[in-house]
Design goal:
single chain; 170 residues; mainly alpha; 74% helix
Length: 170
């Protein structure tokens, strides 16, 4: 379990670094692809709930520490996505080996579609209305498409990093 925790933590740091170095600079239809939200979903689909929640919290806090969003809001979105994905992962719905090829990308796309709404609503609850700048629909569609395309590779990374915990659980 310690190896899995170290691997997931290291990959979480890499994901946040790639988010800032690459994906924050790229805008598709005015929207940013949020890898820091996809990563907890990918870890959650492996069925490792505690590691998924930790990845969502860590990636969100690190992202919020460097962005102009309310501190903890990205972490909240990451934790909520991680929990939902881990429930599906525990049931084996998003299993990369036994589920159909399209299941994991569709689950991730649904998460990518919902995540911007949760983010904006959370910002409104925190009385930060500046999060509603561009088109929310564009952000939802861009993240859904990106999550669909990146879900399987990210889930493979998460499964490899959490392999020791998965072996111990079985």
């Amino acid at each position: 379990m310690i190896q899995a925790r170290a691997g997931i933590t290291l990959l979480t740091l890499v994901v946040v670094g790639v988010q800032f170095a690459v994906f924050t600079q790229w805008r598709f239809a005015g929207a940013v692809v949020m890898l820091v939200w996809l990563w907890p979903v990918a870890v959650g689909l492996t069925g490792l709930t505690s590691l998924a929640l930790a990845a969502g919290l860590l990636s969100g806090v690190l992202f919020d520490a460097q962005s102009a969003t309310p501190f903890g809001l990205s972490a909240l979105v990451g934790v909520l996505l991680a929990f939902a994905a881990s429930r599906l992962g525990k049931e084996g719905v998003g299993d990369l080996d036994s589920a159909a090829l399209w299941v994991t990308p569709v689950i991730a796309a649904a998460a990518g579609f919902v995540a911007p709404v949760v983010f904006v609503v959370g910002g409104a609850v925190a009385l930060n209305f500046s999060l509603w700048r561009g088109s929310l629909l564009d952000s939802m569609v861009v993240n859904a498409v990106a999550f669909f395309l990146l879900a399987r590779p990210m889930s493979r990374l998460a499964a490899m990093a959490g392999a020791s915990a998965l072996r111990a659980r079985r």
